[in-house]
Specification:
The chain is α+β, with helices and mostly antiparallel strands. The chain has helices at 30-47, 52-57, 133-143, and strands spanning 11-16, 60-61, 64-71, 80-87, 95-103, 109-117, 120-121. The strands form two sheets. A five-stranded antiparallel sheet has the order 1-4-5-6-3, covered by helices on one side. A two-stranded antiparallel ribbon has the order 2-7.
């Protein structure tokens, strides 16, 4: 996972810290970062030709199975942030996304994270052993060969 904003490449999703994102001291509540990361991930995939609605239509869900987040310094009410997200090379059926949340003004890093998702068959609730064929070409265009 990238720690230095100067070397982190990926899709950039802008957000502004609103009052409902913060605690009484005006500091961003820890769960807000997760919400921003999910929004960034959904928009990143959409920008690469994969809308979440398409997954649902194919009978596929992508639940989070692992999440690690490190908080480096607090973002505060009124600040503009950028959530950067990148998909690691795909091995098997795990999708691992790296994130960096930083100040839009200074590039200061607020949080870094890695989130792992797996495809689940909506009908059975079981983890899929293989990616649906319709998804393989899209995933390859995003992250390279699917192994």
């Amino acid at each position: 996972m990238a720690q230095d904003s100067t070397d982190f490449q990926g899709f950039a999703y802008p957000a502004r810290v609103q009052p409902h994102h913060t605690d009484y001291a005006g500091v961003v509540w820890h769960g807000t970062y997760l919400s921003w990361m999910e929004s960034a991930r959904v928009e990143y995939l959409r920008s690469r030709g994969l809308a979440y609605e398409q997954l649902v239509e194919m009978g596929c869900e992508l639940p989070v199975v692992d999440l690690g987040i490190q908080y480096h310094r607090p973002a505060r009410m009124g600040e503009e942030v950028v959530v950067k997200v990148a998909l690691e090379p795909i091995e098997g059926v795990r999708l691992m996304f790296d994130y960096q949340v930083e100040s839009a003004a200074t590039g200061e890093c607020y949080a870094t994270a890695c989130v792992t998702l797996v495809p689940v068959d909506r009908a059975t609730g079981r983890v899929m052993r293989r990616w649906p064929p319709e998804l393989v070409s899209v995933l390859q265009s995003i992250a390279g060969p699917v192994q």
